[in-house]
């Protein structure tokens, strides 16, 4: 099992959903970096379970402990490591699932891959619980990027079949991003947001679940970040975005809509605005040839419905080799999308920071 990612900033993630704790080790940060611990706590609180009727009832405070790499208020150059203790597990809910894999989960392929030694409680290492350490690391990356006036924000584009309008890919501004980050349910259209929340609560009552789409914008990126082919901006971002449990699709710019256009429509034509090279449209989502082009970086992330639902489902007993019916117990999100917002923003920050360091080194980080 690989739990390591990154070229310049290296991440090593550890823990299981119902183990003693979860955490992350971050290597490659320069010494002398002052961390905004309040910002780290704020980002974690955006992802925290049990904070509303829209999320799971599991009540984890998600308070973190810095184990190493931090001394007298600043990074000291050694690997920076964090631990988040698990304090509200109910592992008994999963005992009967040991040999009856849940539909939509990793239970069955994990049982095969690890010869039955996988931690099945709450999904073990496959659980969305492991996104909390990613949010921590991503908050540090966002803090560093903010030194360059680079900001990242998202809105809930859709829940189920309910959709709101997309970002204006050319004229989106930092005020919009800051407003979204301050919202508990970030949408551009408050009326549509209420409909989304009502739909989540309705489906929760029906013991079912919903998926949805997040749209994310990154503003302030310099031109020329990234590389062609294997280390393109799209490749780096997609690598981490698809590491988030439940993500099933990532789309940049106009994405699949580009297939309906002609080249004369799809090409983002250049112009001069206040002495700066810009484009009149942004179908490419701020990326051309794997490199940033100075326009807002726009992408969308699709999440499948939460697989743990209260309705009866068909599965198999892996030892008895027979079909059975299960009803999943435990505490689960009727829709993971609202809590996924800081996760998507965090991993985007990590991928982009890694690419910027590749281009410019760490001398600018202070």
Give a quick summary of the entry.
The chain is of the alpha+beta class. The chain has helices at 37-47, 107-113, 131-146, 174-181, 190-205, 233-241, 263-266, 337-360; strands at residues 4-5, 10-15, 21-27, 64-68, 70-71, 74-75, 80-85, 151-159, 162-163, 212-219, 247-252, 270-273, 276-279, 287-288, 291-292, 297-303, 313-317, 322-326.
How would you characterize the overall build of this protein?
With 366 residues, this protein is of the alpha+beta class. It has one domain: Chorismate synthase AroC (Chorismate synthase, AroC fold), CATH 3.60.150.10. The two termini are 35 Å apart. 42% of the residues are buried.
Short key terms for the protein model shown above:
alpha+beta; 366 residues; 5-stranded antiparallel sheet; 8 helices; globular; Chorismate synthase, AroC fold
Strand order of the largest sheet: 1-2-3-7-4
What's the mean pLDDT score?
92
Strand content: 15-25%
Please report the first level of CATH classification, the CATH class: Alpha Beta
């Amino acid at each position: 099992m690989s739990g390591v990612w990154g070229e310049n900033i290296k991440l090593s993630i550890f823990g299981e959903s119902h183990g003693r704790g979860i955490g992350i080790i971050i290597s490659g940060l320069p010494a002398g970096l002052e961390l905004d611990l309040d910002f780290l706590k704020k980002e974690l609180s955006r992802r925290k379970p049990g904070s509303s009727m829209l999320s799971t009832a599991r009540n984890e405070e998600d308070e973190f402990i810095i184990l190493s790499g931090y001394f007298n208020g600043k990074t000291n150059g050694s690997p920076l490591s964090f631990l988040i203790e698990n304090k509200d597990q109910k592992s008994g809910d999963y005992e009967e699932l040991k040999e009856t894999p849940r539909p939509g989960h990793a239970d069955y392929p994990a049982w095969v891959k690890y010869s039955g030694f996988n931690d099945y409680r709450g999904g073990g290492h496959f659980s969305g619980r492991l996104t909390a350490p990613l949010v921590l690391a991503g908050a540090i990356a966002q803090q560093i990027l903010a030194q360059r006036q680079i900001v990242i924000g998202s809105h809930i584009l859709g829940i189920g079949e309910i959709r709101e309008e997309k970002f204006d890919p050319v004229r989106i501004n930092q005020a919009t991003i800051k407003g979204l980050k301050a919202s508990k349910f970030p949408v551009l259209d408050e009326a549509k947001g209420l409909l989304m929340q009502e739909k989540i609560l309705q489906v929760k009552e029906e013991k079912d679940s919903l998926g949805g789409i997040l749209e994310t914008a990154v503003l302030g990126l310099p031109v020329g970040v990234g590389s062609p082919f294997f280390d393109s901006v799209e490749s780096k971002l997609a690598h981490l975005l698809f590491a988030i449990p439940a993500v099933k699709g990532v789309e940049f710019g106009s994405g699949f809509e580009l297939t309906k256009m002609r080249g004369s429509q799809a090409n983002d034509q250049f112009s001069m605005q206040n002495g700066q090279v810009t484009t009149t449209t942004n179908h490419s989502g701020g990326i051309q040839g794997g490199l940033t082009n100075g326009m807002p970086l726009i992408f969308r992330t699709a999440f499948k419905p939460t697989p743990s639902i209260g309705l009866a489902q068909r599965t198999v007993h892996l030892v008895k080799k027979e079909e059975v019916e299960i009803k999943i117990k435990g505490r689960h999100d009727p829709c993971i999308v609202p809590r996924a917002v800081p996760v998507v923003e965090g991993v985007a920050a990590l991928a982009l920071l890694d690419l910027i360091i590749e281009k410019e080194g760490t001398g600018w980080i202070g």
